[in-house]
Amino acid sequence: MDLPLLKELNEDRARRRAAILVTHLSDGSQRLVRVDDDHASDPLAEEFARRFRSGKSGTVETEQGDAFLTVFLPAPRLVIIGAVHISQALVPMAEIAGLDVTVIDPRTAFASEERFPGSSLRAEWPEDVLKEAPLDPYTAVAAVTHDPKIDDFPLMEALNTGCFYVGALGSRKTHGKRLERFREAGLDPALFERLDAPIGLDIGAASPEEIAVAVLGAVIKALRKPPEPAA
After folding, report:
1. Coiled-coil ranges per the record (predicted)?
2. Pair (96, 114) in one structural domain
3. Do both 197 and 182 map to the same domain?
4. Which domain holds residue 139?
5. Both 213 and 103 in a single domain?
6. pLDDT in tens, 7-40
């Protein structure tokens, strides 16, 4: 790889920007394709879409001969809003599943080292944390505080950013009121359908531990499975 291309790739990885390095095996020529590039007219567009989702590198056939696609995806993150009982169960499970987990809660009575030992815990307001570590399409957000003052901002930010999963705790009535606030705040209603609420897979979960399992299942499903086509 030539140095300018290597520099571009390193910059993309530092910014958590997904990219694919295309290497034509016949002559060794290379090009870099980013996830947010407009490559709809590229002969490999469908292949790029699959690889950006799966993260798997491999050889593909092209009109110019075989090419090797080296896929560079940011490590998937899970940002949990709320240092509650569900979060205590969810953090270790999500870490075992390979997610980089951050818990955010400005309420220091909940956000303590004793309750979340060894975890990436931020006892600050989400607005402040997300300025420093912005959300991106390879981040999942799970809001579980039941407090609009804490949950609403990161949820709207996650929807606007295109996070791969956005979920919120609460009943359908609570969710209806949430959407009313989002409309008043100017959030595009077209984004509402991306919000998983009540949060998690519908497995009849009742305890905090069971709800954590349901949330993790929903996050992994959103990360690994392509969206189901509209009916």
Report:
1. none
2. yes
3. yes
4. 77-224
5. yes
6. 888 888 888 888 999 999 989 999 999 888 877 7
